[in-house]
């Protein structure tokens, strides 16, 4: 059985106290702060066009474009060329989705094809909802847990939040949640809009592994906007697309057991732990690593956020 | 009006990304990790007996005692001698209360008179409860907010959680909460035991200021165990000791206004912000610093915790 702290470590694989000096920092002309971390192997694989400045002593990779438009074109062209060359397995999954990178003043600094975010180690965003029932026969809370489809590219058949998804550029977290809740759990828009409650963020730095099907060890700092929604008894979540195989109402003890056996995806294990902490299911008296867990789930990132 | 991020900064005055290299680290023989931060002025004011090893180049202050008993006696004797000499204003408030310092394995490393904790910058612990009503006439949540007595040594007449207190050695957070809730708000033990719900921790590093009446700028890293309790309408909190002048039921808009005007103590402002985040009152769509605030409220400490 994995401990709860082990579950956090499975997801947040580069804790805030770890020395990042072996990594290259992703810099942008005109900004003092880094926007992500690159592995040395990544830096050496790219054929950097001359609008990049690579400093191997200072370990920086700097994009020189001076406007948003210029930077977007430069990064897009650079990645498209690498895709043609077949340099990175990860780029084979190219889609039209883009992620936005924000500056210290929350200004838009550049956009990057979603699939390439781990190469530069930029912060990405998602939404996660746990729908639950508390008016149960025994008065104990139960949570609707999704099982990922067998056909998912990442983490097939593992357990998930009721609803979850990555946040595309141009959508606010709450609107994204409403859309995803309709798509993934068939929740009427009005239900989510009136009943879902924001409850903070869960933050971590994952690293890509063999389950992702691309390069290994890339940094993926994430911010998950977490929500919860108490469901009336007559509302039954039903998978509305091909993301989930089923969504079932689980008791706390069943969920704890599934967590311990590693049946949740690393990120969704943390989403559940955060719910357990907010609801007093995990507390100082029953969890020896309580302070570390409740703090680590909300760790700060080394880069600006939205 | 103070912004919510300014309220966080008022309380967490030494954020995790700040360089601590100007500070002396408090070390203990046999342990690799520091247990607190001391100011250079503090280090130079002490007359260190020979069971201390002071390293000005490496900026460490090391207690050499090899057992818990030895260390407790050494630190007690050292502080008592300074109190006799009148070296530190802060030591005038000496009480019998002691705080415990824990190691990386959560083992007890030493105990220190409570009043002296800021001199060594060790982590201290507290409990905070917000009692609220949600079955109000307009369906909006209201929170019972205490006003500190005019006679309090620190932050007189400012606003506070419903119940709060520091955690003495030997008491678990939940038992401490039950005791404080009876003392400060006249809540029956059974009510708190069955209705109060743990919801995580709020962490910050305050620095002492003129309102504390002692030395200035000392580091006080704290972990607050947070609780909430939905109260039935017929339960009215009543100040049971001399800590609070009154406890009143406030609407969210009233509380927001009081926060903006700086009427809450810095720590309790953060406790309220954390409640607002957990309950979706503050969210990404209405708070530009949402991600930073929800992460900073749970910042990690540089030292081991209980």
TrEMBL record, chains A, B:
Q: Which GO terms describe its molecular function?
A: 8-oxo-dGDP phosphatase activity
- One Pfam family name from the record? NUDIX
Q: Which domain of life is it from?
A: Eukaryota
Q: Which residues form the Nudix hydrolase domain?
A: 113-272
InterPro entries attached here? DUF4743 (IPR031804), NUDIX_hydrolase-like_dom_sf (IPR015797), NUDIX_hydrolase_dom (IPR000086)
PROSITE patterns from the xrefs? NUDIX
Q: Which PANTHER family match?
A: THIAMIN PYROPHOSPHOKINASE, THIAMIN PYROPHOSPHOKINASE 1
Protein's UniProt name = Nudix hydrolase domain-containing protein
């Amino acid at each position: 059985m994995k401990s709860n702290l082990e579950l956090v470590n499975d997801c947040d694989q580069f804790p805030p106290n770890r020395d990042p000096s072996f990594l290259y920092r992703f810099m942008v002309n005109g900004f003092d702060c880094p926007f992500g971390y690159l592995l040395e192997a990544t830096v050496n694989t790219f054929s950097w066009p001359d609008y990049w400045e690579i400093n191997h002593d200072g370990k920086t990779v700097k994009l020189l474009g001076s406007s948003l438009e210029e930077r977007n074109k430069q990064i897009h062209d650079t990645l498209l060329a690498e895709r043609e060359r077949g340099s990175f397995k990860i780029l084979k999954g190219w889609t039209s989705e883009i992620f936005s990178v924000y500056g210290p003043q929350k200004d838009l600094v550049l956009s990057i094809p979603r699939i390439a975010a781990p190469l530069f180690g930029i912060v990405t965003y998602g939404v996660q909802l746990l729908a639950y029932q508390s008016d149960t026969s025994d008065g104990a809370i139960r949570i609707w847990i999704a099982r990922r489809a067998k056909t998912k590219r990442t983490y097939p058949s593992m357990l998930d939040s009721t609803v979850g998804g990555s946040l595309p550029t141009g959508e606010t977290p709450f609107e994204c949640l409403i859309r995803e809740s309709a798509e993934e759990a068939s929740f009427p828009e009005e239900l989510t809009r009136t009943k879902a409650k924001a409850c903070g963020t869960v933050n971590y730095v994952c690293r890509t592994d063999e389950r992702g099907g691309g390069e290994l060890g890339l940094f993926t700092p994430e911010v998950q906007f977490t929500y919860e929604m108490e469901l009336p008894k007559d509302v039954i979540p039903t998978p509305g697309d091909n993301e989930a195989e089923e969504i079932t109402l689980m008791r706390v003890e069943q969920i704890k057991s599934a967590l311990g056996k590693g049946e949740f995806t690393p990120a969704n294990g943390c989403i559940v732990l955060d719910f357990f902490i907010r609801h007093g299911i995990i507390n100082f008296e029953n969890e020896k690593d309580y302070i570390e867990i409740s703090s680590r789930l909300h760790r700060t990132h080394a880069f600006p956020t939205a």
